Structure formats: structure tokens, C-alpha cells
Amino acid sequence: MKPLLSLIRRLFLGAALFACAHAWAASSDLRAAQDTQLQQGLERVVREQGLQGEVSSGHLSLALVDVTPGREPRLAMLNGDRMMYAASMPKLAILLGAFVEAEAGRLSLDPFHLQAMTNMIRRSSNEDATRVLKWVGGERLIDILESARFKFYDPNGAGGLWVGKAYDNAPAYRRDPVRNLSHGATAFQVARLYYLLENNLLFSPVLTAQMKEVLSKPEIHHKFVAGLADRPGVQIFRKSGTWKDTHADSALVEFGDRRYIMVGIAEHRDGGEWLRKLAVPMHDLVTASATR
After folding, report:
1. Which of 79, 103, 126, 236 is the 20 to 30 A CA-CA neighbour of 246?
2. What is the model's pTM?
């Protein structure tokens, strides 16, 4: 009996250590997942699209992360830490803030509040974005983004996700310290948000599922969504942004047993078309390399 109990204890301990190791690996810095093969592939995709000049000039930033379950994450990026104006894409940060307040019991995730969040994300409603931001609080959101828990914005480094202005005619209440932007983002930090979400490292599984539901079923069919229409069977969790010559898009994509994240921010009148054309080769790059 004693040898059997000893074996059971060893098996239990081994399972616990494996679970802890898996959780540690998933929560460790995404930068450690930089992958040479994926990086070279992303650079090749950009060259083939004739966009290497736009990357060199800083007018295009990209991040691509393979998060296929059962595999180590792989990261590639170009200008990934470049702080850029990102139009409506930082509404992702407002959504994050709303779920933080819901987790703390200060905001109800009832149909009324969830509908406003859904309109903010799927339709990019500025009215609802302003409403949800007021529920969270502008300064409170900045505290969340800069917190030790999330680290989505570093005022002394590359920056990250930033919302310092409501999506209305009111002036900015606080511009970001890195580039003086009202609504900004780096491709890396946006990708990191999706990465943590996909690994249940932002919130509990229940809140994660609710947040993913808000991000699902995009109602604006351009950029990445339009590009991936050529790849039937994809499921997209997404937030984009457009303002004048700024075109941004971000997506967590599920395709069969594959999972990946892609983020793009472009400062050019043709930037939306760039992102549309990049969607399929970036998709094929991840799915083909995952197969290999």
C-alpha cells in the first residue's frame, strides 16, 4: 500500500509541477518567443508586397504571433515597439478597463453594459466608446494600463496602449508621454493583449469567454477581415481603427487547430489596402509553418 501511495504522490506532484511550468511559460515575457524563422518569413512577406520602404521609414508596423495550442508561442515583428497613432484600435484598452472594473464588482456585465461594449468594438461606435470610458474613468484606465499587473504602457520606455481622450469632441485629458498622442498603440503591446487573453492570463475563464464574445463577429468588413475572406473557415476576434491617413487593425484568428495574432498600424492614405493585402500571406505564413 505504501509504495502505491508513494507513486500516487509522485504522479500528483509531477502533474502539479507540469501545470505550474506551463502557466509560467504562458505568462513569461512574450518577447522571449521571438522566432527567427517566423521573423524571416514576415520580412519576406513585406518584401513581396513591396512595403519594405514603408517599414524602413516607420510608416508601417506589424506584429505576428503564432499561439497554436500545444506549441511554444512564436513572435515576429517589424517596428513592433514604435508608438503610433492608432485611431479606434485603442478601444481595446477601454474594453480591458471595463472588464477590470467588472472583475472588481464595480461594473455590471448585464445586457445594457455589454451591448455598449459590443457596439464599441464591432461597430467602432464612438458614442459607446465614450460611454464605456466614462464608466471606467479616464485616469483610472491609464492607471490600469500602467499597472504592474498589466504593463500595457511604459511611460519610460516604448509606450504601448494609450487612451487619453474620449471619442468625442472634448479635448484630450492626458496625452501619452512618449509621442504626445491621444489614442496610441504599439503593435507589440496590442499583440500581447490578445496573447494574454488567449491564454486566460487576463481574467478568469468566464470573463475571458465574455471578452472574446465582444471581440467576435466584426461588423466592419475591411483590412484584415476583407483579406481573410479569401480563407474560408477563419474565426476572427478583432478591433480596427481608421482616421484620415491612419489605418490600424488587430485580430486573434482561429483556423482549424491553428491560432495566431496579427497587428498592423499604417500611416499612409493606402494603409488600409496594405493591411488587406498582407492578411492572406501572413495567414499562410503561420499556418504553413505550423504544419511544418
Report:
1. 236
2. 0.90
Backbone angles phi, psi at 66, to 5 degrees: -90, 115
**What residue numbers bound the domain in which 240 lies?**
34-291
CATH of the domain at 222: 3.40.710.10
Instruction: Give the pLDDT band of residue 28 (cuts 50, 70, 90).
Output: low
CA gap 21, 15 in Å, rounded: 10
Query: What tens digit of pLDDT does each residue of 186-198 get?
Result: 999 999 999 999 9
Number of structural domains found in the chain: 2
**Based on the domain organization, do 18 and 60 belong to the same domain?**
no
258 has which bridge partners?
255
Does residue 108 share a domain with residue 179?
yes
Q: Provide the Cα torsion 88, 221, 59, 33; round to 10°.
A: 90
Name the 3-class secondary structure at 187.
Answer: helix
